[in-house]
Specification:
By secondary structure, the chain is an alpha+beta fold. The chain contains four helices and eleven strands. The protein has one domain: 2-Layer Sandwich (Pseudouridine synthase). Strand 10 and strand 11 form a beta hairpin. It starts with a strand and ends in a 5-residue tail after the last helix.
Length: 230
């Protein structure tokens, strides 16, 4: 099944998504994570018939990291509410081509999605059809040619991190859609959903899910992992 399971109980299951994985099926017809996880649950627990699995959130296909699914309708409804109310902590790692304007800061833009291009555009001021997007970042370190950013995401807009970082000139390594000069092998980009933290929707205990980046044969992610405080 080749799934990197980060967390599992009767209500939730979380995996470390690879850069080639689809969270949910699309027109490509590729087998998506939700199908693979349903099959995993069916086999592990010898469940007859269809297996319930609720999709709570998604990551772009070229992005790696934590994705959590609901195993019950109760968990799905309560997790959806947490995402709507932004009562979760979402931490990302990004490798970018240019130094940010300061070692740490808050980015606030107004984003609009171009559906035909499947990309978003960022503006400094609100315009018709835009949605407010906010994140904060810190410069965690740097290599010879790249800079390592740790990001806390406060809103969940389409391509938000990719778009906002490109807006300030910090293009994510491998992200051709937002201005990178070269693609990464395998079609991924150097953006990783590192951590998801929240109160369990049923037990109310504090849950912290942490996913390592795809560091094998990737010296930049290996360097990032060695940084103090990361």
């Amino acid at each position: 099944m080749n799934l990197d399971i980060l967390y599992e109980d009767n209500h939730l299951i979380a995996v470390n998504k690879g850069t080639s994985d689809l969270v949910q099926g699309d027109k490509t017809g590729d087998v998506s994570l939700d199908i693979r996880i349903r099959e995993y649950i069916k086999q592990k627990y010898n469940k007859p018939g269809d297996v319930f699995l609720g999709i709570i959130h998604r990551l772009d296909r070229p992005v790696s990291g934590v994705v959590v699914f609901a195993r019950t309708s109760k968990a799905l409804g309560r997790m959806n509410q947490m995402f709507r109310e932004r009562s979760l902590m979402k931490k990302y790692w990004a490798v970018v081509s240019e130094s940010p304007p300061a070692d740490k800061g808050v980015l606030e833009h107004y984003l609009i999605k171009n559906h035909k291009q499947n990309r978003s555009y960022a503006y400094e001021r609100e315009k018709p059809g835009t949605k407010r997007a906010v994140l904060d970042y810190r410069l965690a370190g740097q290599s010879k040619d790249y800079y390592f950013l740790e990001i806390n995401l406060h809103t969940g807009r389409h391509h938000q991190i990719r778009c906002q970082l490109a807006k300030i000139g910090c293009i994510i390594k491998g992200d051709l859609k937002y201005g990178s000069k070269r693609s990464d092998p395998g079609g991924g980009i150097h953006l990783h959903a590192r951590q998801l933290e929240f109160l369990h929707p049923v037990t109310k205990e504090k849950i912290k899910m942490v996913a390592d980046p795809p560091a094998e044969n990737d010296s930049l992610w290996q360097e990032f992992l060695k940084l103090p405080g990361c």
